[in-house]
Amino acid sequence: MAQHSQTAPSGGSTGGSSQEQRSSRRAVTVFPLLILAGAAVALLFPQAFAGWGAGVTPALMIIMFGMGLTLSLPDFALVLKRPLPVIAGVILQFTIMPLLALGIATALDLPPQLAAGMILVGSVPGGTSSNVVTYLAKGDVALSVTMTSLSTLLSPLLTPLITLALAGQFLEVPTGSLALSLVQIVLVPIILGLIIHSLLPGFVRRIEPILPWVSVLGITYVVIAVVSGSGEVLAAAGLGLIVGVILHNLLGYGLGYAVAALVRFPVASRRAVSVEVGMQNSGLASGLAAQYFTPEAALPGAIFSVWHNISGGILASIWGRRRPDDHAEPTHR
């Protein structure tokens, strides 16, 4: 049976000091409030953030570097120890969310640029705050960390291919350029972070409490940059886009949990898979959409960034009150 970890993640590692745990909890609590405030200010005073678009890629690289600092090679050992839940979870991540995005965009008849942006949100890896949400929800933190890490490392290959297959009917998808950007934005910073963690573990431990805030501030920056340049489109899209984003996230949670239950994963693992499938690296999706599609295509990612942290907090609050049934029948080792 999978062992449920009760230690808080620092973003990657499943251990952590009490100071680091408190920092992670505060970051998850403040995250949606800070993003909502940033989005509101960007809508009210868009001219004040006119030049922020140029900083989106560096901001994403800093976020990914911070994630790399929290990872270590043992975080990937679960792929060998318990391959079934890890591989199944990653497959669900890259199938359920892209197909849901296509179905919802089609059902709501979203404009092509918004449909493509929603599909890109569905095609990126798991969200950077999913590990902390899984911890607060009393889920399998080790599984969550490994799923996030593996889906992120696979994203330079899978994200462009899935986006091309599903969003190519709406907008031209520059697959090669998208893949190269993902290598630059995702792989290189994460590998650098891993190397520094291996060489300077003491230094990394000292700065770990601030790393959740690096993600919070970085994604807030991306949301402000996107929203400030797309206020008119956001107002025109209005309720339809917001409903679509909410459905995308909630159905991701539900289907992730349902499939994990169907194959009889332990309850703690079901919670981890549910959170990993439902929460996306929407800041990355926004940055890529703004760079390779249109500013409007970045809006689904910006809205998703706000909503999935609110819903993740609610889900963690509900599940966190109930310990998982440790006697649920396992199907893996």
From TrEMBL:
Biased composition (Low complexity): 1-21
Subcellular location per the Swiss-Prot or TrEMBL entry: Membrane
Record keywords, A-Z: Membrane, Transmembrane, Transmembrane helix
Transmembrane segments: 27-45, 51-72, 84-108, 114-137, 149-171, 177-198, 210-228, 234-263
Topological relation to the membrane, as annotated: Multi-pass membrane protein
Record's keyword annotation contains Flavoprotein: no
The UniProt record lists the keyword Transmembrane helix: yes
PANTHER family recorded: P3 PROTEIN-RELATED (PTHR10361:SF28), SODIUM-BILE ACID COTRANSPORTER (PTHR10361)
Name by which UniProt lists this protein: Sodium-dependent transporter
Lineage: Bacteria, Bacillati, Actinomycetota, Actinomycetes, Micrococcales
